Amino acid sequence: MYEISTKELFLWITEIKNRTKDIDALYLLLDLIGGITKSDLILLKINSHEKVFLKINFHYLKKKWIEHIQLSKPIQYISGSSYWRNFKLEVTKDVLIPRVETEQIVEIAKYIIDSEDKKIVFADLGTGSGSIAISLVEENRNWIGLATDIDINALQIAQKNHQKISLESNLSFYCGNWWEPLINYAGKINLAVSNPPYIPRNVYEKLPSSVKDFEPKRALYGGDDGLYHIKQIISDAPKFLVKGGWLILENHFDQSKVIKNLLRENGFDSLKTINDAFGVGRFTIGRYK
């Protein structure tokens, strides 16, 4: 631990507040790298402690903030970690930063599956950091999870996150494209969830540098209309889902109508668009007849 004066720390925070609106990023840096939460800072003010202890050298912490400002590099990649639901996950350049909007997919899955259905087999297609799959098996200990990703480096990050977070052995990892590595589970999967690459070309080209320069393109870019991967997932779904099995997809705000049509054409009913907390139609669900 590294000791500095509380006064010195707050002077630095105040200087940054006067120069930028990006104060939440600073609090995240202090938390993920410095080991000081926003609540800790409030208590320091109230209790007037003269000293504060950081997990890293204060000079190094300042350098990391400069790196964020000058390069627009996300704090999560600078620290190598990110919060998601109740977990702290490892993230690298090989995986997307898990977004708070995506957290809702876990609640949707728990809502549509009958609570009496104890032995659920689910697939998380394109697992990335493993955030969705790990949450589902942690919150539903009787469920059996199958997590796939085409990128072996991403899959290794997901496996590490699972090992750090859970003692359960009910989640397995498979390297391959979408359903491809799950051939032994054909016709046996009760639920599939995916946050696939769905950003259309015209939107991807205008993304801020903090996203486009650092997050993996293959996890974001969905082709000209953003539906390239979603079409693959939907067309192959009937081979793998049981009758009555559910598919939950995260999608771009304007894609849900087209996705519902694709689901209908491939034998799905109970089609529904679900809005996120910001009122955006972010999720599309369907049940295989």
What do we call the CATH homologous superfamily of the largest domain? Vaccinia Virus protein VP39
Strand percentage lies at 15-25%
- How many beta strands in the DSSP annotation? 11
The CATH topology of the largest domain is Rossmann fold
Radius of gyration from CA coordinates: 21 Å
Tell me about the largest β-sheet.
7 strands, mixed
Query: Can you tell me the residue ranges where pLDDT is under 50 for at least 5 consecutive residues?
Result: none
Supply the CATH architecture of the largest domain: 3-Layer(aba) Sandwich
Number of helices: 12
Walk me through the structure:
This protein has 289 residues and is of the alpha/beta class. It has 2 domains: 2-71; 95-288, Rossmann fold, CATH 3.40.50.150. Helices cover 41% and strands 22% of the residues. The chain contains 12 helices and 11 strands. The chain has helices at 6-19, 23-34, 38-47, 58-71, 75-79, 104-112, 131-139, 152-165, 201-204, 209-212, 228-240, 256-265; strands at 2-5, 51-54, 81-84, 87-90, 121-125, 144-149, 171-175, 189-194, 241-250, 268-275, 281-288. The strands form 3 sheets. The chain has a 7-stranded mixed β-sheet, with helices on both faces. It has a two-stranded antiparallel sheet with strand order 1-2. Strands 3-4 form a two-stranded antiparallel ribbon. Helix 2 (23-34) packs across helix 4. The longest helix has 14 residues, at 6-19. The chain is elongated, with a radius of gyration of 21 Å. The mean pLDDT is 94.
